[in-house]
Amino acid sequence: MTNTAGYHWPGPGGVGAHLTPGLYERLIDAELAEALAASDLRAVSGKVDSADAPHVLATHLAARIERALQAAKGRERLELANRLLALLPDGSALQERPEVDPKKEPSPDQLLSLWPAGFDQAPGRPEIPLADVALLTNGPQDPGLAAELVKEMGSADRIDLLGSFIKWTGVRTLLPGLEPLARRGVPIRVLTTTYIGATDRKALDALAGLGAQVRVNYFSASTKLHAKAWIFHRNSGYSTAYIGSSNLSRSAMTDGVEWNVRVSQVATPHVLAKFAATFETYWSSPDYQPYDPATDSARLDEALRDARGLPGPGTTSTVTALTVRPYPHQQLMLEDLEAEREGGRHANLLVAATGTGKTVVAALDYARLIERLNGDGRRVLPRLLFVAHRKEILQQALRTYRDVLKDGSFGEMFVDGQRPARGDHVFASVQSLQDLCVFEPERFDVVVIDEFHHAHAASYRKVLSHFRPKELLGLTATPERGDGVSVADVFFGGRIASELRLWDALEADLLVPFHYFGIADGTDLRRLSFRRGQYDQGELSRLYLADRARAAKIVENTRQYVADVGRMKALGFCVTVEHAHFMADYFTASGIPALALDGGSSRAEREAGLAALRSGEVKALFTVDLFNEGLDIPDIDTVIMARPTQSATIFLQQLGRGLRRTPTKAVLTVLDFVGHQHADFRFDVKFRALTGLGRRKLRTAVEAGFPFLPAGCHIELDRVTQDEVLKNLTQTVKLRAAQLVADIRVHAGDVRPYTLRSYLHDADRSLADIYAGNPTATVRGRKIPRTWQALAGLALGGGKEIGEASVVELDLLRRIRAFTHVNDRPRIAAYRRILAALALAETPAEAEEVLAGLGEKAAYAPMLYFSLWPTGDPGEMAVKLWEAVRSGVFRAELEQVLEVREDALRTVARPLPGRLAGVPVLSHGRYTREELLAGFGVGTQDEEKPGNVREGVKYVRHLGVDILLVTLRKSEADYSPTTLYRDYALTPNLFHWESQSTTGENSPTGQRYITHESRGTDVVLFVRETKVGEIGTEPYTCLGRARYVRHSGSKPMAIEWELDRAMPAMLLAASKLVS
């Protein structure tokens, strides 16, 4: 089956390219001449104008040269390039040649079109050559946009149109081109929105009547589609596209001040590839609903009226007709919750900024619980109690649950005198629940408590201590109390089930974009006391109170960066109460009215201060600890960070106070005043929370000025701050072993034994801090493996000295990093079981018996073995694993790593379906190449060793399974337009994959891909974002079994695979071309 979606083309003029009817601009070389002679198609050709010949010849050669360079490897590429350069004369030799009459110069022939014999209605050509790029501005020298589009239509094989709105007047001007398309049966796809209500239903009806497939995004309030573009697909390889400012309206088509760029597959192939891939992603998205005038006109009319703010003819439904789907960040939270429950944790806390849809997550989570309970077709609703402290929150929550469940009668209110009749699904205020005799402790299966930071209050504690639900879910934006105590520590064992990734919410357009400015304040904090991630607050406050120059600098920069200080609503965060009052007084004295509020302020003082900020009477509030919901002022548009903050949680809480969307707020301005920090202060924690970047990429981002941020966001560091941050990041990313030894000693204190898990939690570090970089280190003149036991042994003493370890043990310890990615419980349990069983064996023969007696866990032994010895002899597996375990050093280290990985599990791994159910590789598990191949029997039931497999595809014959290994970012560069659009997710269940360049659709491999279902073979897809990760070679995530849907092209083939199981949310975000 050939794809009709249009996201892959043959290259124009490729060697042996298939000739199809259509327009061309291709030089006729010997190969093409031979192909034309053998073709039944009638060719139309012409001479290339001598003035255009250099450009045409260069374009032709460039394509051929690029293909030759792609086929070559390494040094061959350089040698080929040098041979080509040697053939070119230098400039002076060219200048010395005598001039030749252009009319007497030989001119190359160019194929212009191919048509079936007897075809006498060849379409006209656009004014702009098919291979060229042009900018159209509706100027007097430019061809008219509408006229060009009509001409482009005449030779197109397929057309895609993307427009934020479509007007009848625009469609009307294009009817001379659209009507012939309908008669020819040319596929047309149209994507548009109800944005500002500008689309005309008549226009969509007309397009649908002409045979176009139309899809509409009805979410006008949140749509981010403002693009306007056309793409004209041509099977000849000469596709073209128009991208610019023109919507499909009369003025945009004719006389508006519009800029549109015409691009071509020949001159800008990667631009067209991105266009086509992005369009396909939009087209596959459930956000765009098919539009049929016969059934959807009323819905469209209503959506357009709503977008224009006009009243409808009837009453509004109490339950939305649209399916509530999670945003990517919400999907990630749902996956985290599922993973926590799989691990036996049934009291969970979600942390996310106000306005990011925590209640939606709770409702979707409840719907998932219903699905789990109703697997046998029954309709059982778990009894639910939703608790909040305000009636408005309860009303909104009830509406959300009804929308998610599509049940307008779901739930009852218990607030302000309203009492539930049945009491099965209750939305109650905490005040109404003070008489707890109304409900027995086991009454509710699920209890959800909104604004969980109130849980310290007596009224909330009373509720929490009374009920004993099967599932407890807390929701909050601010887990930290003013005294630094977190509700996570008090009620959830110090564990947050899921915490919002800020950049995900920004990508979803749920929060206002931020402009962050890091400003050097000139202070020197290097000599202050700093312990466990915090400065001594007294010392820091005294330093700031004595530094009026710093306060003046904060005022000066506030005036500089804030657009209008007179209309500013700022919130400033200070070290102590005294510091907050100092800053408020200084701002007021400087002509910017300000107040200080803190936990000791009376209720009346707080309310008066907040009212003054809302009204504009004061322009700034300075505070220390007011993070709770009482300080909820959506209009805050400026955050002043007048104190250093290392904690990511506190930093995001501070930022979150200003990220609420309002109609009048376009951006949040963040002013962060940075001094010369203590050597142990870490900038990476804050900037990773702000950007979502890993440690390796964070340093590059700082150097480059943060080029990749969510739309509308901006981070700017002044020169001094940038130098300070870069110096700090260099120390953090390349943390020396001696620094780690000292850090372990500080955080361990008197705790013995002190585990790797405890240290990473206490120090806010990751496994990468221990295992990244060189696997050996030198400390105090001694060379040691960079492992936990070695570092902790030097820091704390005791235990076996690493220096006493054998050469074999040292080599094994260096391979520990091969297990730092393990992310599923069955594998962790299996590895532990293998280690424990082998530890009991006394001889190699017993080791063989032990492995044979492990049952289904024995299948994991090759994965463990080849992770340590990628090209090892499978006949030695039992003996070598036994030797590795005997000494105890390797086993102890691996146990520490597995404990950390188990604690960090956020994945629900599932067995592969069907014939592959017995394979120890699970969907959504992460695996090294050696590990996953061993799991499929490579190395044991297949002669090739896992460590010798270098290609991205492997057919495992004894299982009848094709393993596809995909790296999304082929280039190590942050942005590589030539390689980004080959492999990507279209939807959570659809993945576009490009085969190896030698695989044709009629080859044995290509046919196996296409017909795998009828042949009884399987395809399993593995994906990773980059080749190199934080610790070393990046592992792959198993997306599970895939089913062939369609393909296009040949050598390479572009195949669309349908996954049995939706992709993990985090990998989906990395795999999609659009947010």
Automatic annotation (TrEMBL):
Helicase ATP-binding domain residues: 339-483
Gene3D superfamilies per UniProt: Endonuclease Chain A, P-loop containing nucleotide triphosphate hydrolases
InterPro entries registered for this protein in UniProt: ATP-dep_Helicase, DUF3427, Helicase/UvrB_N, Helicase_ATP-bd, Helicase_C-like, P-loop_NTPase, PLD-like_dom, PLipase_D/transphosphatidylase
Residues covered by the Helicase C-terminal domain: 557-714
SUPFAM superfamilies: P-loop containing nucleoside triphosphate hydrolases, Phospholipase D/nuclease
GO MF annotation: an example: DNA binding
PROSITE patterns: HELICASE_ATP_BIND_1 (PS51192), HELICASE_CTER (PS51194), PLD (PS50035)
One Pfam entry name: PLDc_2
GO biological process: phosphorus metabolic process
Sequence ranges assigned to domain PLD phosphodiesterase in this UniProt record: 221-252
PANTHER family: ATP-DEPENDENT HELICASE LHR-RELATED-RELATED, MITOCHONDRIAL ATP-DEPENDENT HELICASE IRC3-RELATED
This protein's name: DUF3427 domain-containing protein
